[in-house]
Please model this.
Amino acid sequence: MNTSVNRAIESGLLLIVFAGSLVAQVSTPSEADRGLPNGAVASSSETSSASTGNKAHDNSFVIGNDDHLAINVWKETDLTRSIPVRSDGKISLPLVGELQAAGRTPLQLEQEITAKLMNYITDPEVTVIVEQINSQKFNILGQVTKPGSYSLATATTVLDAIATAGGFRDFAKQQSIYILRQNANGGETRIAINYKDVIKGKNPGQNIKLEPRDTIVVP
Model:
């Protein structure tokens, strides 16, 4: 077989390989074409959310008086605003009027606002976010510098609470602190806290996370 024939065969093979690679590139979109970073794969949940328009919500939090809400209505800047929940538990919005916010979850409030806006806007898209939690509070009493009621947003543990209240007074019994916690049945549980052990690392589990309406007593 002469040299010219060999070259023709080699050229034909190269054309076949090149054509196959072009078909593979056209038939399989790249990650960039799909809007994904290299190596990323869209999960079934992401695909489902994109197709249905569902938004994830933590439906366990209940809005209370003095909480601060961010209410966003897509493409409606006049209706998008940041507002506090009044002491009567209500908020007021243009077109919607007054609504009961306290005692509801953000998702429930979002659904009610959406339903009322449908009288004025086609397919309104509403999002309710709790920007600042002021309704969930704890009390700290006794031998601290600034006893009183504080938002849980400023303190989450016993040590946080003591620091928020300005620390101890001179004759505070730091080994005899306790928390009064309300039970679901209406009673109270008393939880002992030995501050000196906690700060020495002997019993760090006593630096417990506070719950709404806890009362810390520093004798």
